[in-house]
Specification:
The complex is a heterodimer of chains A (251) and B (338). Chain A has 251 residues and is α/β, with parallel strands linked by helices. Chain A is built from eleven helices and ten strands. In chain A, 40% of the residues lie in helices and 25% in strands. A two-stranded antiparallel ribbon of chain B has the order 1-2. The relative contact order of chain B is 0.18. The chains are: A alpha/beta (251), B mainly alpha (338). Chains A and B meet through helix 2, helix 3, helix 4, helix 5 and helix 7 of A and helix 8, helix 9, helix 10 and helix 11 of B.
């Protein structure tokens, strides 16, 4: 399979504190990689670096062989989408409106496109509400007219997942999307990820629920103390004594 | 006023008063027509009141996107207002160009001013942005009233602006106010459509969470500039209108007082909708009128009334109307049915 996204020799220092020592990680087209590790291992830092929210101290991120540079918006337009561990939504917007914001990535490709859409939208609403509806239905999120400030934490997570999906990304990163999400929601998100994978997109999935991650991932990467401790197929990792000890906490 | 305060004052419903945009627009058009024929044209004095209302409305609508959707406090609105007015004055009194070209020229100059202000304040937000833009507004006022006197006429302003004439039709004051009312209606309608489509939603997401907007692919920096520029262009129409109406302008009209006055209008009317800015403007001229009848304590009564509305009705007049409407709708439908 062809390599879609690669992190090469990524290191990150916060002041004098080492958050990531050396991370090498690759996600192929159509691959679902589960990223696991204890709290503070650096999972979210790695996602922030790939999405451009944080700048790495060392190393580079490559998408389709080319180095990825620039801020998060530019990377989103290049095809990288993500969710946040703590859902980031506008509470005064409805779920539908929050999700629709993901359309910015495919639509606002240049300042000229932004300017054109800016004035056009005052006359005619070209927002693809159909896609918003369809994506939300596919992950089992309903009641889209509800204001984001009034819904459960689980529904906020699903809203973020839906927003990341309507970006029509080539590579999607979900940072702990499952806590607080009910079984239907989990099944919906997993189905959507399988669908993306079947289309040749790449997925990086972070979650504490190792059973869920193992049920869908093609391979697992365990990071500990800022380094890749173990990587490999799900079967190998789950069979590994070290993996079970480091992550699940059983000897 | 912080962005969180703005956010909490917004209602939970997508729709204004729980009704569709077009219904609201039709009601607003009817109200404006009623105000025009039943009030504005009945005396020259009332026409002046209608003129002030139109100018306030356009300025407040100009502030709507950058400030009330985007949370960017730009206080240089007196400069954008002046850009529209001086374009008309200079084109009308000093050139032989058709006066109508002053309208796009004014909007363009205002947008360029806003672009400069926006670029100069790229990394500023909140209090610092407010302060920097206020200074920009002060600088423009100072230039108009003294240092730039050779061009702007200084404190004496510019007079002798001819009547607007388009294709042989002369725009007298009655006709200009009608056009002004239509402009207010059209701008408010466009803004209420804008706020619910993708660009407007992106502006609103960016106010709540810049990280989320960036991650969704919104070019937040270009977007801030776009909102400042289009807001300035709308505000310039207020200046264009006043200069066409009065056929003279005085530098004093473009001091900072106007900025602080219009800043409150959307909040009086309700910031959940651009129509709130128009309602706020109407309220201002009516309260002003009522309080000026009482000599002496008039301005104090006006200030007190505005303050009461802001404290008691954080959603503005539209907010209280929306609450009343939804309560009534729920009762008439029978509660708990959804």
């Amino acid at each position: 399979m062809t390599e879609l996204l690669a992190c090469r020799d990524i290191g990150k220092l916060y002041g004098g504190v080492v958050a990531l020592k050396k991370i090498d990680l690759a996600v192929d087209a159509g691959e679902i990689v589960g990223l696991v590790g204890a709290n503070g291992a650096g999972k979210s830092t790695l996602i922030d670096i790939i999405s451009g929210n944080t700048r790495q101290s060392r190393g580079a991120v490559h998408l389709r062989g080319a180095e990825v540079r620039g801020g998060p918006a530019k990377r989103a337009r290049a095809g990288i989408s993500r969710t946040f561990q703590l859902p980031q939504v506008a509470h005064d917007l409805s779920l539908r409106e929050n999700i629709a914001c993901g359309l910015a990535a495919p639509r606002f490709r240049s300042p000229y496109r932004l300017a054109a859409e800016w004035f056009h939208s005052a006359v005619h609403d070209t927002t693809d509400w159909g896609l918003v509806e369809e994506v939300s239905r596919s992950i089992g999120l309903s009641g889209l007219e509800r204001a984001a400030g009034t819904v459960s934490f689980g529904d906020l997570r699903l809203t973020e997942v839906a927003r990341a999906l309507v970006q029509q990304p080539d590579f999607i990163m979900l940072d702990e999307p499952f806590p607080g999400v009910d079984d239907d929601g989990v099944a919906g998100v997993l189905a959507a990820l399988r669908e993306l994978s079947a289309q040749g997109k790449g997925v990086l999935l972070v979650d504490h629920n190792v059973d869920i991650v193992a049920s869908i991932a093609d391979s697992l990467v365990l990071i500990a103390e800022g380094e890749v401790a173990i990587e490999g197929s799900v079967e190998d990792c789950m069979a590994s004594q070290v993996f079970r000890h480091r992550y699940i906490g059983v000897a | 006023m912080t962005s969180t305060q703005i956010a909490t004052a917004l209602p939970r419903d997508r729709r204004v008063l729980g009704v569709q945009t077009w219904t609201v627009a039709a009601v607003a058009l009817a109200a404006l027509a009623l105000a025009y024929f039943g009030f504005a044209v009945t005396s020259p004095y009332r026409l002046d009141i209608a003129m002030t209302f139109t100018m306030y409305s356009l300025l407040a609508l100009g502030m709507y996107v950058p400030l009330f959707l985007g949370g960017n406090i730009d206080l240089a609105y007196n400069a954008y207002y002046a850009a529209g007015a001086y374009s008309v004055a200079l084109v009308g009194a000093r050139t032989h160009l058709p006066l109508l070209v002053a309208v796009p020229i004014g909007a363009l100059i205002a947008a360029v001013l806003a672009l400069v202000v926006g670029l100069a304040t790229t990394h500023l937000s909140g209090f610092h942005l407010a302060l920097a833009t206020m200074l920009a507004g002060l600088a423009v006022y100072r230039w108009i009233s003294s240092t730039g006197a050779e061009i702007t006429g200084g404190a004496d302003g510019i007079g002798g602006i001819p009547r607007l004439e388009v294709l042989g039709v002369e725009f007298d004051r009655e006709l200009l106010v009608a056009v002004g009312f239509l402009a207010v209606w059209l701008v408010a309608l466009c803004l209420s459509r804008f706020r619910r489509a993708l660009p407007g939603l992106s502006v609103r997401l960016n106010r709540a969470s810049p990280a989320a907007a960036e991650a969704a692919g919104v070019p937040t920096r270009s977007m801030k500039l776009m909102s400042l520029m289009s807001g300035a262009a709308i505000a310039s129409l207020g200046g264009t209108f006043i200069a066409l109406m009065n056929q003279f302008i005085l530098a004093d009209s473009f001091s900072h007082d106007i900025v602080f006055l219009i800043l409150f209008l959307p909040m009086l009317g309700g910031i959940a909708s651009p129509w709130g800015a128009v309602i706020g403007a109407a309220l201002l001229v009516l309260l002003n009128e009522a309080s000026s009848l009482l000599e002496g304590p008039g301005p104090l009564i006006f200030g007190g009334a505005s303050l009461l509305i802001l404290i008691l009705l954080p959603g503005g007049l539209l907010g209280i109307a929306a609450t009343t409407w939804s309560t009534w709708a729920r009762r008439s439908r029978g509660s708990f049915d959804d």
